[in-house]
TrEMBL record:
SUPFAM superfamilies registered for this protein in UniProt: Actin-like ATPase domain
GO CC entries: cytoplasm
Record's protein name: Acetate kinase
Subunit structure: Homodimer.
Lineage: Bacteria, Bacillati, Bacillota, Bacilli, Bacillales
Length: 403
């Protein structure tokens, strides 16, 4: 079975083509600057030189047509015909309360995705454009929607409700949804496999920390709480997002600085976090280097970042009455040994003991970086959201085939 995974932005299409019998990535690429006469197409096939070209691509339909042309090109491609694509897995950011798992796309599913546009106005519309483009170009294939929010639909009401007037939830669906669900689900399953234990036996805290960051409590294979909320702004300190702050700061700063609603929203999402505190960068590599060289604000931002992450870990250990596995994943989690080291400080009360040598010298693939004495398995697991989408797509296709 060949599964094409698509992740559409407002002016981009990311894609990966999998042969699911081996879970091998046959090809991957990116179409960017859609809507321009100078769109850029990046296309890679295993064992071959990457291909880059500039073309006029005015919409997502045309962009996906270009992708399929490359995938079936005699020299640049890996397929004989577009009909060799059996299924398409679509990343959809927000499923709201409509979707608690991946679903085969039909008209009712499309209506549900549209109903959640207000909750993800920057993401769901381009996701819908990608679905339209793929269904137009690949009408024979089974199309599946995989939602970032679905994994967190198992949270209990006392975890996802806000202490606001209940009518706001009833009228406007204001509640906590959580994000990065595909990543958290993937690394939790990978951790159970790595440890040789059923997910149902484990209490897992998963830290997906990249430019965006979230922490999830996973008990018996189910999300029971997560740091992101109604939007990806809530929770941890991130690259450019502030995370949790006193809500009264918003009107106070708006009054003092004469900011509009759009301006204060931009401040919290694009100019805060590591970038706002350090004044240097949102990139953890640059922050760590500056802190090492004595920059006090870089060090402060690093201390704040790891302190807040450690608080989240402690709170989720309390939520689950303990923790068996702590996972670091995504760009920062997989690569920043200093962040992992500082985060694990003062977690000895959990019985956690980090192996400094393993943490500093990390081979590729899933790794255990805690000592043999540690009661908590500390793991670094590379995330693979695209593979998770491909697996969910295959699962639903096989269910349909079995009736």
């Amino acid at each position: 079975m060949n599964v094409l995974v698509i992740n559409c932005g407002s002016s981009s299409i990311k894609y990966q083509l999998y042969r699911m019998e081996t879970e091998e990535v046959l090809s991957k690429g990116l179409v960017e600057r859609i809507g321009s006469d100078r769109s850029i197409v990046h296309h890679t096939v295993n064992g071959r030189e990457p291909w880059v070209e500039t073309a006029e691509i005015l919409d997502h339909r045309q962009g996906l047509y270009q992708v399929l042309a490359l995938l079936t090109d005699p020299e640049k491609g890996v397929l004989e015909d577009a009909g060799d694509v059996d299924a398409v897995g679509h990343r959809v950011v927000h499923g709201g309360e409509n979707f608690s798992s991946a679903v085969v796309i039909d008209q009712e599913v499309l209506r549900g995705i549209r109903q959640n546009v207000d909750l993800a106005p920057l993401h769901n519309p381009p996701n819908l454009s990608g679905i339209d483009a793929a269904r137009h170009n690949l009408p024979h294939a089974t199309h599946v929607a995989v939602f970032d929010t679905a994994f967190h639909q198992t949270m209990p009401d006392y975890a996802y409700m806000y202490p606001l007037p209940r009518v706001l939830y009833q009228k406007h669906r204001i509640r906590r949804y959580g994000f990065h669900g595909t990543s958290h689900q993937y690394v939790a399953e990978r951790a159970a496999e790595f440890l040789g234990r059923p997910p149902e036996e484990l209490k897992i805290i998963s830290c997906h920390i990249g430019n965006g960051a979230s922490c999830t409590a996973i008990e018996k294979g189910r999300s029971v709480d997560t740091t992101m909320g109604m939007t990806p702004l809530e929770g941890l300190m991130m690259g450019t997002r502030c995370g949790d702050i006193d809500p009264a700061i918003v009107p106070y700063v708006m009054g003092k600085e004469e900011l509009t609603l759009a301006e204060v929203n931009s401040m919290m999402n694009k100019h805060s976090g590591l970038l706002g505190v350090s004044g240097i960068s949102s990139d953890m590599r640059e922050i760590s280097e500056a802190a090492f060289n004595g920059d006090k604000y870089a060090r402060l931002s690093l201390e704040m970042y790891t302190y807040r992450l450690r608080k989240a870990i402690g709170s989720y250990a309390a939520v689950m009455d303990g923790v068996d596995v702590l996972i670091f994943t995504a760009g920062v989690g997989e690569n920043a040994s200093l962040v992992r080291e500082w985060t694990c400080r003062n977690l000895s009360y959990l019985g956690l003991e980090l192996d400094q040598e393993k943490n500093a010298d990390l081979p590729k693939g899933p790794q255990r970086i805690s000592t043999d004495r540690s009661r908590v398995n500390v793991l670094v697991i590379p995330t693979d959201e695209e593979l998770m989408i491909a697996r969910e797509t295959r699962r639903l296709v096989q269910q349909e085939e079995q009736g």
